[in-house]
Structure formats: structure tokens, C-alpha cells
Task: structure prediction
Amino acid sequence: MDKIEIGVAYAMVEKTIVNEILATLTNRGMRPPFVVVGVSRNGAAYIFRSNGVGMAPENLVVSSPEAFVKFPVDCLVVDATGEVQRASIEPRPPA
Result:
């Protein structure tokens, strides 16, 4: 399983970051729909289904003990064929 490193500079995992991950995986041959599991260091967990890049996700599970996500966020992405990839969303160091 390859690891995709995506840096972010803000305190929430935004739709554009998820789209970047899904676009990268689609370019590597993965096929929608995708099920994405994201777990942050503070115990927040998110599971959603996406029919592809730019499509609105369907939230399946959202569980967050706090009002924010603590980075890094580790993601597991499963595609329509059962292929699994891991993505890690890391904070960017200050410029």
C-alpha cells in the first residue's frame, strides 16, 4: 500500500483536500465509488462514500470528541474493486 502525503495549512479537512486525494487515486487507477475512513489524532473519525472527484460525499459516520480535527489525519480509501490505499493528511510547517 502506497502512502500519499498531502500537506494542509488549516485546521479542518476541507473538501478540496479530499478531492485531491481522490483525484490522485483515480489517476493511479482506482475506481469510484470510494469509501473513505479518516481518523485524527484526537480520536475524531469520519466515514463517507464518494462517487468520484467533485461529487458531494455521503456521510456515513461522523464522530468527533472535539470541535476540530487534530493533525495528522490518517485515511483509508477503498474503491469499487476492493483496492485499498492509505493517505496521510499532514500539517504544513509555517512558512
